Amino acid sequence: MNAEQLVIDQLHAYKRLKARKKQLEGTSVGPGMRLSAVSEDDHLQELHRQLRKLPSYMYLDEQDQRIEAAAHANLSKYPIGTKAQLKEVKKSRSTASPADEKLLRELEKKIEKVLEAREGSGGFEGYMGVIDKISELQDIEKQLQSIDQALEALEAYAPDYARLLKLRFIEGKPTEFVASELGIVDRTFRRWKQKALQEVVRFLSA
Q1: 135 and 129 in contact (C-beta within 8 Å)?
Q2: Whole-angstrom Cα distance, residue 180 to residue 187?
Q3: Contact between 133 and 27 (Cβ < 8 Å)
Q4: How many DSSP H helices and E strands does the chain contain?
Q5: How far separated are the first and last CA of the chain, in Å rounded?
Q6: What is the pLDDT along the chain (206 residues), one digit of tens a residue?
Q7: How far apart, in whole angstroms, are the C-alpha atoms of residue 105 and residue 92?
Q8: Residue 183 to residue 82: CA distance in whole angstroms
Q9: I need a surface site. Which of 33, 46, 151, 168 has the fewest CB within 10 A?
Q10: Residue 172 backbone zone (phi > 0: left; psi -120 to 50: alpha; other: beta)
Q11: For residue 68, which of 107, 23, 98, 123 has the smallest C-alpha distance?
Q12: Is residue 101 within 8 Å of residue 90, measured between CB atoms?
């Protein structure tokens, strides 16, 4: 398949990609949370790594600081796995003071929410399902961005070429309709189309 045909295929797919992007962005991944918000926060893992280097009082609110203090006071070990952490918290509650027991119960609920988010519950997708959809959404956004940038560049100096491609391949209008809209004959349409595709190929490969 030549480069120009690849461009045509991308333009034909533009509306479908837009529709899929909208569908993905609206996917519910938790109570009151949409995939679009999660996708925008893909820097959170890096932020979390940075926060771990700081004293917890700089990023935890007062209640979370109390929970952290109760955990340090009562847990005899700090397992790596989330399920093992949950088990250790449950175990430590039996010997904790009434005040710490209440805080550890709150910590237990927080850990359970993390596990639910990873495994999926309550009609929401699990962690890996969300990751897959975020990857798909980001791939679609990159494809759409490439097409948009190429057409914008073309429109900057050859607006008729850009309009021809949008009408013919994105909107799917017949050749006769596009030629009439542009006020050109069929032979001119074919020449413009060829030149427009060559320009977009050049922009996309730059």
Answers
A1: no
A2: 12
A3: yes
A4: 10, 2
A5: 19
A6: 688 999 999 999 999 999 999 998 888 766 666 767 655 554 444 444 454 555 655 556 788 888 888 888 898 877 766 777 888 889 899 899 999 999 999 888 888 876 665 555 544 555 566 777 777 888 899 899 999 999 999 999 999 999 999 999 999 999 999 999 999 999 999 999 999 999 999 998 87
A7: 10
A8: 66
A9: 46
A10: left
A11: 107
A12: no
SS (HEC) of 173-201: CCHHHHHHHHCCCHHHHHHHHHHHHHHHH
Report CA Rg, the chain: 27
- Rounded Cα distance between 195 and 157, Å, is 13
Residue 155 identity: E
Q: Residue holding tokens 């490439």? A: 146
Cβ proximity of 164 and 196 under 8 Å: yes
